[in-house]
Here is the input.
Amino acid sequence: MPIAFHLDLHPDQLASWVKNCTQAVVTVDDQGVVKTVSPQFLKLLQCPLDQVVEQPLDRYLHLPPEEMERLRHPDAHGGLRWVQGELLPFGSSPKTVTLQRISGKSSDGWLHLLLIYSRDQGAHHLQRHAEQIVNSLPQGIVLLDSTLRVTEINPAACRMFGVNKDDLCGQEMKRLFLRLEGGEGVDELEDRIRRREPFRDIPASWILEGVPQVVTVDYEIAAESGGESFLTINDITRNHLLDLKVRQTDRLAMIGQMAAGTAHEIRNPLTSIRGFLQVIRHTLDERGDLKGQGYAEIMLREIDRINHLLGEFLLMGKPRNVKKRRVELDHSLRELLPIIENEAILHNIEVRYLPGLKDFPPVWADPELLKQVVLNLCKNGIEAMGEGGLLQLRLSGDEERLILEVEDHGPGIPDSEINLIFDPFYTTKENGTGLGLAVSKQIIEDIGGEIQVSSGEAGSIFSVILPCVRD
Here is the structure.
């Protein structure tokens, strides 16, 4: 199997792999300083670890001058190379060895992985270890021939693209992308590869079997290979999700600062305005001015709506003092049912509570904040259905966690919007604030739980997952 690629491993991952490798391996930075070594390399040197690490490589291994230049300037000489050199064991004569160098860039700079073979080791032995490295990499590697047909693919790439190696090898490159849905940047990748245009760190994303994946892709032409080329795919999905969470936190922090600075100042004059409007409404009522009284009612309702919005601003921005304790969730829900039913009756909606177990273990949560979330989810469900319908609350779970599901039979949430509903200020309601679900999600996460949503034409289901108390 021909190999040529950049080794883009995290330094900690690479160090762990080297320390457990049975092959003679050493890693060197772009200054020629030894960073990690395998036990087999120390055995060949007949030298202890503390006398090798952080020492210049040329004390133990002589390489041709041009190769040392490549170590110091890897940008111009990246990829994989085979090199002859001399190992300098302690207390014995030099040994001629063959080295396989793989270069890669980490957060700390360039690193070179040197696999060392004695002259009596055959090409098959070298090939076997090279394949082992490629197959154990977390990065996806795809090799293409001069006609852009797949010649090799490692297990990581098979997982990322949802393909089988035996089915793909020998097929056209486009078969690599057939199972991907909702891709962004995939068309650009295919186009640049067909033009045989090398690139690095091109972002792309897709959905494979319902699971989103975010990657960066490198494409390079292999040196002196008759037109062969290769792809390196780095899975950055976890980093991407963390980045989204940080952005969400930043937005909430911004809202909190806005709320703290303005809400109280706005509420004070609103309270005065509302008081005078009530007096005016009473005067108009005594005079029998129904039209003027109607205008006053409209203004009072709008002031109440502003006050409600300011209240949610303050709740979003206020640091929550979460007081966790044992909560009997079934008991709390039964306490809330009369409140939920009173709201539902106004809209001709039936409410059903379906406990799935006889005995529920207690959950670890803040009872008042939890009640606020349940009421908010039920209110959203009632508003989504409008007039008439069925609102169901289902409680299920096991010894580890309880799941509360709030299901409505409204019009559902479009696929294009379902990932936005927990964003602050996002709403589809005419008079909505877009803060209710954002506050609910933040509360559930603060008490150590999780909130999920699924939706279709028959309605939506919000699931609140809470950890149970462990004795």
In short: Residues 1-6 have pLDDT under 50 and may be disordered. DSSP finds twelve helices and 19 strands in the chain.
